[in-house]
Amino acid sequence: xxxxxxxxxxxTHDRIMRTLLLAAALIAAPAAAQDSPFxxxxxxxxxxxxxxGLLIRNDGRFQYMLAAGALDERAEGRWEARGDLICLxxxxxxxxxxxxxxxxxxxxxxxxxxxxxxxxxxxxxxVDFTIGFDSGNPVEDYTQxxxxxxxxxxxxxxxxxxxxxxxxxxxxxxxxxxxADGGKLRAIIVPNDIGVVDFDAACAEKTERGLTLxxxxxxxxxxxxxxx
Length: 228
What we know:
It is built from one helix and 16 strands. A hairpin with a 6-residue loop joins strand 8 and strand 9. Helix content is 7%, strand content 40%. The protein is mainly beta. It folds into two domains: 10-94 and 195-227, YedD-like protein (Lipocalin, Beta Barrel), CATH 2.40.128.500; 98-190, Sandwich (Immunoglobulin-like), CATH 2.60.40. The chain has one helix spanning 10-25; strands spanning 40-44, 51-56, 61-68, 71-82, 85-90, 98-102, 114-117, 127-132, 139-142, 160-165, 170-171, 175-176, 185-190, 200-206, 210-215, 218-224. The protein has an eight-stranded antiparallel β-barrel with strand order 1-2-3-4-5-14-15-16. Strands 8, 9, 10, 11 and 12 form a five-stranded antiparallel β-sheet that branches.
């Protein structure tokens, strides 16, 4: 799962672990504390390029953080024991980011063919796109912060655009362009709970030094801090 991700600085890993340790220190054991061998603090053991941690609290809650290049993930919620496993459920359930069509914007006096922005109008680079026409092959490329504009020698008019933001895997149905659009599109990424992982009873099993969390994207190995 984590192959090919850009390096996360060591200080990012340390910041994550300090945050989790501080949270642990602030938690007083409740009267109805759950007696589980999983309770404790864990560090992600996926190599030097990724930093992360997992805190299993004795009040039935958990906290999770990950930093891997441009990708930041976090989650908190409930855990429950299921036999020899512990299963995590994000609570409250996150609202995933979306893409929606917005009013066209000028960038340095020109309206680009395609511009992807946050709601405040700031451009988003690195969004993959495919543009289709009435004839000829589609164009595939990715956006810059100031958008993307059709080459002057290509006089075709875009009829539809498909977008995909790869880091957080944000997609949208194909945007069909009407005559009123003039072959141009501004797409807005509405972040909502971007970066919050929707753990839906994702289960982990104990290992000799910590635990392994099973996710659809791949397994994540954690080392218990007092086992390091």
